Amino acid sequence: MQTPEDGRTARKRRAIMEAATELFLRKGYPGTSMDEIAATAAVSKQTVYKQFKDKETLFGAIILNASSKVGLFVDAVDALRDTDDLDQDLTGLARRYITTVIRPEGLQLRRLLIAEADRFPEVAADYYRRAPERTIAALAACFQRLAARGLLRLDDPALAAGHFAWLVLATPMDRAMFFGHDDTQTPAELERLADEGVRVFLAAYSAR
Amino acid sequence: MQTPEDGRTARKRRAIMEAATELFLRKGYPGTSMDEIAATAAVSKQTVYKQFKDKETLFGAIILNASSKVGLFVDAVDALRDTDDLDQDLTGLARRYITTVIRPEGLQLRRLLIAEADRFPEVAADYYRRAPERTIAALAACFQRLAARGLLRLDDPALAAGHFAWLVLATPMDRAMFFGHDDTQTPAELERLADEGVRVFLAAYSAR
């Protein structure tokens, strides 16, 4: 049973994670102190330490929370297995993929994680398994099923999944890694990149 | 005329840049001091400051030096315009591309630059223009010429250049960003990724 106390604790936990995310992104991990996190979240330092034993634990919780958002996209990938219009539904998936991944906060977290990967190799490796690797695995399983249904032609589903992912995502993601939040990519431009990525993918992998 | 003094200065400058690169990669930019750089390069602190007015200038010089290595690859891209065996020569170019980019030091510099892009937006933007953007521009010009020769079919040479680049590079590069030097990619695996990237690219863009 959820008590009012549990609700307050959950709210505080969320406020601490939001404050820490904002500070880590703006000032970097080493440049952010637990004191500032407590002040920004408007809680006592004691409350911060009660929820997260140290800054590293808090960082890990933020990354874990970010990777948990992959689930919804993985569900959409799984649903594609039963498509009766591959061109249209794969294009829809690619558009959803690019707008899910190419968002300022997600890209900034990615940069933060790359910046801190030497300091926290386990957090980085754990994120990699839970987010990009899980997505590629779901795409590979879906493409294998579509090949079994005679809609795609491929030998290596994981390779095809990587090709799909990077045809769609890589150009805007690469720019964002060097320029931070990159608002030169309009929604229309992202949609075009998704559509063109699907075109190239199907030219190589469609069974028709 | 090059004097013996010039030669000594150039040697010291190189030693300082090599020491700083090694320290930045191992300890991060903020974690490295000019004192340590001088000690590692076996020169006086005064000599370091005579060559580089501050740590930021030294960082910029290292990144500029790294981006200057793009020239040789761009020459190879330009040479492809006159190919009389597109499949074979594009495969050769892709293999060269992947082994040029997917090297431990280059990947670590890329991670360092992504980590420091907020602190040094101009260094990051300058690198982006001199290295990836210049490479993509060279590929685009080459593909446009190959289209004019009737070997490729494309509307948007820059888009096709991005597709080629990321089909070849993205999978090993993405892993390396999260795992640091990633020695699970053997030379044979990199070659296979290059070959498969070319196969997908030509399926979409070959005029045959």
Short description:
By secondary structure, chain A is mostly helical.
Note the main attributes of this structure:
Arc Repressor Mutant, subunit A, homodimer, mainly alpha, 2 domains, Tetracycline Repressor, domain 2, 208 residues
Can you describe what's shown?
The structure is a homodimer of 208-residue chains. Chain A has 208 residues and is mostly helical. Chain A folds into two domains: 4-64, Arc Repressor Mutant, subunit A (Orthogonal Bundle), CATH 1.10.10; 68-205, Tetracycline Repressor, domain 2. Helices cover 77% and strands 0% of the residues of chain A. Chain A contains ten helices and no strands. In chain A, helix 9 packs antiparallel against helix 10 (187-205). The longest helix of chain A has 28 residues, at 121-148. The first copy, chain A, is elongated, with a radius of gyration of 20 Å. The model of chain A has no long low-confidence stretch (mean pLDDT 92). The interface between A and B is large, with 39 and 40 residues.
**Element string of chain A (H = helix, E = strand):** HHHHHHHHHH
Query: How many domains of chain A, as an integer?
Result: 2
Count of helical stretches of chain A: 10
Portion of residues in helices of chain A? over 70%
Name the quaternary structure. Answer: homodimer
Report the structural category of chain A.
Answer: mainly alpha
Largest sheet of chain A: none
CATH class of the largest domain in chain A: Mainly Alpha
At the fourth CATH level, what is the homologous superfamily of the largest domain in chain A?
A: Tetracycline Repressor, domain 2
Q: Overall mean pLDDT score of chain A?
A: 92
